[in-house]
Amino acid sequence: MKLKLKQLIVGIIVCFVIQSNAQNKLHTYVDPMIGSEGDGRVFIGPSCPFGMVKPSPDCTVSPNSGWLPMPKEVTGFSQVHVSGTGGGPKYGNIQIMPFSGELNKIDQTSFRQEENVKLGYYETVFKENQIKTEITTGEKVSFYRITYPKYVTKDLKIDPGFFLGEPKEPDPDAREAQQFVGSQIEIVSDTEVRGYSRIRGGWNNGRAYTVYFWAVFDQPIAKYVTWKDGKFYSNTSAQFDSGKKTGALLSFGKEGKQELNVKIGISFLSSLKAKNNIEVEIPHWNFNSVLSALENKWEQLLSRITISPDTSEDYKKMFYTGLYHTMIMPVDRTGENPLWTNDEPYYDDFYCIWDTFRTSSPLITIIDPDREVEIINAMLNIYKRDGYLPEGRSGNENGRTQGGSNAETVIADAFVKNLKGIDYELALKAMLKDAEVLPGGNEEKEGRGGLNEYLNLGYIPYGIDRAGNRTIDYAYNDYNIATVAKGLNHTAIYDRYIKQSEYWKNLWRADYEDNGSKGFIMPKDASGNWLDDVVFGESKIQKPTFKYTPTITESPWYVCHWCVFFYEGTSWEYSLSIPHHIPEVVARSGGDLAFKNRLDTFFEKELYDVSNEPSFLAPTMYHWIGRPDLSSDRIHTIIKNNFNSSPKGLPGNDDSGAMSSWLAFHMMGLYPNAGQPYYLINTPLIKEITFQLKGGKSFKISTKNLSDKKKYINSATLNGEPYNKAWILHEDIVNGGELILEMASKPSSWGTTMLPPTK
Amino acid sequence: MKLKLKQLIVGIIVCFVIQSNAQNKLHTYVDPMIGSEGDGRVFIGPSCPFGMVKPSPDCTVSPNSGWLPMPKEVTGFSQVHVSGTGGGPKYGNIQIMPFSGELNKIDQTSFRQEENVKLGYYETVFKENQIKTEITTGEKVSFYRITYPKYVTKDLKIDPGFFLGEPKEPDPDAREAQQFVGSQIEIVSDTEVRGYSRIRGGWNNGRAYTVYFWAVFDQPIAKYVTWKDGKFYSNTSAQFDSGKKTGALLSFGKEGKQELNVKIGISFLSSLKAKNNIEVEIPHWNFNSVLSALENKWEQLLSRITISPDTSEDYKKMFYTGLYHTMIMPVDRTGENPLWTNDEPYYDDFYCIWDTFRTSSPLITIIDPDREVEIINAMLNIYKRDGYLPEGRSGNENGRTQGGSNAETVIADAFVKNLKGIDYELALKAMLKDAEVLPGGNEEKEGRGGLNEYLNLGYIPYGIDRAGNRTIDYAYNDYNIATVAKGLNHTAIYDRYIKQSEYWKNLWRADYEDNGSKGFIMPKDASGNWLDDVVFGESKIQKPTFKYTPTITESPWYVCHWCVFFYEGTSWEYSLSIPHHIPEVVARSGGDLAFKNRLDTFFEKELYDVSNEPSFLAPTMYHWIGRPDLSSDRIHTIIKNNFNSSPKGLPGNDDSGAMSSWLAFHMMGLYPNAGQPYYLINTPLIKEITFQLKGGKSFKISTKNLSDKKKYINSATLNGEPYNKAWILHEDIVNGGELILEMASKPSSWGTTMLPPTK
């Protein structure tokens, strides 16, 4: 008996080691540099999953993610960033910068000689002074290992006055620009510095937020100066907040070891809480163990989707980096909410849901449904305390809508996928607030701008900002409300909202032809007249007009980006973005053949915009005319032409992982129609994918004979039974099992008859 | 030459002493206890003019001002309070409590044996332990002198977890209840403690605000324990914020002097800023010099209005306490704004303008026009950064409207009184935001709830909260906008708003009779039907209705206070509250005689409510039928029956000094119609009043032969010329001079013909 137990334990350990060896590879496929150059704008520094702290170099104050490619100079390393964003920058707080020299100037800008980035790890060596900086991070604490050359002074700047996106010419009213409010610094002891940075504005034009820090060093400070408002003070250990920029230059001398370790605890409550975050999370000085802990967290998540070992290195990198990018935002700030008691989950940096509702939320739901429940509960708490669900939110404040109130879709998606632990009655109330109460005052902050017109006319008339995409988004959001109301047996609410979900039809100009296709969402005035010519800009004197067509993009720099008929897109794109009534769009386009031609024209004449979310669903729309083969063809062409594993491997802003999750889904041969309970099935890029599901079950998607030539699904089985639908319900996945796709070199009749569900 | 200089200096000193002796009496007439009992709810502790810090005992967590009369127990002394308020309490932060005993319990409640209060000074001795606490204060620093009995330990509790208005049963959603968010405490050295209190909610249902402190002691801490969440920690000098209540019990031992001095710096930015506030404002330990500095500040302000030396002691107390109460709110938080850069004036605790626009703002304009300019500029900054002018604002957030958007009246009042240093073009924009952009989301936070209906129908239909008084207030606010627009030559705006200023007429039910009078503001539905019966409460089953009459008050406890037709008043009151069209109200009431009867009925049948602001103008309305004698009679009767110099000397909530400023104006024989450039002249209660005006001029109001019998104005001269109007323009006052009122025992023809202006 004893012996047997021993053998068992040894066996378990062996298994564990093998398994852990086998699994411990996945995170190495993550390449944080994918999408870092060009328009991707991803955050390249270390981050835990949904991690609050995101340390990274800031290469000037301009870039949204802080980083820019070499040879751009480095201003310093700050602790809070966002990933993949457009619009005005946010954060870039509590910057540090190692240097060597006199403690007499604030600017310590340096150039990089080399740079190395992997998951959880950043390293650079500065050209001028050969100082090496390595960074890793915990959830709320960043960790720096700085190696100075021999015989020079080991100096460090701490600059809580720095932030990204400061206007060059001071303009306290500048839209989307971060604005300085206050900062503070205190040298607490010879190994500790505390303080904060308080900033307002930025992308979401938000109220002031405060980032507190507590920095500790493994060597004593030998000498320091502090500054305020550009003036140095050599005998002053603290600079209190008087609305001026403050900071400190620290010197650790020339003596002792060349390696200086720095931990920076961050908190949104207080410096003491930041200190506690260090004590709880990283009580030691072991850089490598912080890095391993971070790697393990990612490994644990990434290993919930395993793929065929013979997948190409490129595909492995693209796929796991896709998962990674999907899970670095929003950020988990539970315990760090300065607005209400913080024992509930709290998330910030919804940046913004217009971007992420389509694919990011559904992907998180598959990998980590408990996390999605937490995120939605945090959204409901925001509704309860701040009055509205977030659409865009950052720095602890709602701000920015781009189209719909898309939290509705996120909630409906959770509801139809049966996520437990959400108070859906409360969620319905929150959605109805969006749908029934005009936010007013600032109609782009939250809720639904133009709501009264939408409700009174059944559409938003031209002249109200983003009339086109708001109308069609609201109609889909109303469908989401109807979905939840129906499930909760609120029949009257269902009846009302299912009716309103058809309001997109009120802007469908049926006889309008363009590029051989018929029927487009087009501008209409409040009296119900279609507008061929619309007003351009805001000139009250010349009152220019222009001919509005479905291919037109309306935003030259001197017309405000958010005042146009369609936000960041054309009528060609948005007219296809009706996710709940696609058969109706097909019919209104003239039937299957006409719709096929419409889609073909869309892609072939490059009316499709790979770089932005409104076009996300379009490549799969061939499914609704019984041609899943054409969907797969489009998707594969798009990926081949626009995505790769290089720094320029994302064709547009990653938008908190939106672009990356679109890619990850398509590599698996699945695509969600968020807010609805199914995934479309396409030809995967990866031969075998296994989901490790909550509760121990797994679901496998296997292909047979997949190759560049055999790229069409010929037949399929689900758990051994023939499966003839080109879509699969979420519940079929979570029940576990196996979907086998038998591939062939030509399209077959598979998936051509039982079209995706419409209710 | 030398000698002469010496003589000159001696002369100056003698003059100064004499003058200072003569003047130094005025502040002694201030009795902070007037209005402290009953409904007055004034703050009784020390406060600088518009002072940010207001230390006072908290007698349980219930009272709005903290204080209650003996024998109620004292929970402790907190540093931030408001004065005269109704609704849910706000503030009560950073409580301290001296005690003697073991450091083992948080509750150190004591009973008072005696209590002494004068301007700038509070003193009490506790019954159980004979500890004496004396308090005075600076602008941002409170100062405690605590005297312990011999041979006992000198102990002190610091409790940043305390706040007023905490619900007994925890209910995080309770309306108007302050809610705990977080707190922190650190024993910095043996003479310093820092920390903060973070609270949300309260009267204005505001976001979280943070009160930071830095406490210093003139004796070293001998021993301490800290606590978190009710648990004591004896070796822990800091309790970081984890969303739980924290605090410390300090012991200064038995040795040394019995007197412990404590300075508590307060800041809304940081603890270090609070420390700096101490260093800048009270670098010493001299209690008496802090008190003298405070007295001098008040003396300097109060002496801008001097009165006949032979005024009765009671009247002197009532008058100067009236001025005092008018100038303790809103509070000057310049340099303490955590929301945007703080080199502009910043004021908080507009609590609320619905209360203060009528008399408080006009009185500040007379005493200290520069202050009023600062306050208005702070309001405009709030509009710029937060989107709307404040109506109610506290804890750095707008919140609560009761009727109109009365900042319009405050601005118009400044405009017609020609206050310089205000950007009136910006002010007009801010007013137009109120008038044209529905706040939405939360329609009681700011701006104008029900705006769309008001604009579409010309009135707010019954069913929308406070439809009655919102309609008539908005009409007056529109008149205020028209006033400013006209002055700035914006003709189109003027034309629109002067038209809208008549919208009150749309709710005037001309043929409705009640108590012998005709024509009342009455509820109307959206289709234009007058409602005799209106819905009561929110029952969806019984749907009860009741007969709505002009004498009815609608708010039993189970109907929400803010959902009624008229907020805190009846149609009898509000139908007279049309400050811009009084001749029209007279005409619609049936002419002069009918209107006289109407007013007589109003006062004699006690339909007039002395305790609330909607009735403020009514007693002077006899002026508009050429009977200023009757106005004076009413005013004197009202004052005699309702106001005195006792703690119960105010008949209603003082509302940040609204009630007190009403009294002060009438004691001077002047009454403003805020937003319009004149004052009504009544028989003063004080024989001689002199305004020391900005720029060195003075204006004197003298009576001749004023006595209880000779109480009617027989004739008047202004600067020696006969003056026959019962009203005077603001510019006549600021130009300096003398108004002499010749009194007689019977009403004369004085003031009966040239009625107050209407444009």
Automatic annotation (TrEMBL), chains A, B:
Residues 1-22 form the signal peptide. Residues 29-267 form the Glycosyl hydrolase family 92 N-terminal domain. The keyword Nucleus does not apply. Pfam families: Glyco_hydro_92, Glyco_hydro_92N. Keywords: Calcium, Signal. Its cofactor is Ca(2+). Residues 273-744 form the Glycosyl hydrolase family domain. GO terms for cellular component: cytosol. The keyword Signal applies. InterPro entries: 6-hairpin_glycosidase_sf, GH-type_carb-bd, GH92_a_mannosidase_put, GH92_N, Glyco_hydro_92, PNGase. GO terms for biological process: carbohydrate metabolic process; glycoprotein catabolic process. GO terms for molecular function: carbohydrate binding; peptide-N4-(N-acetyl-beta-glucosaminyl)asparagine amidase activity. Monomer. This is Alpha-mannosidase.
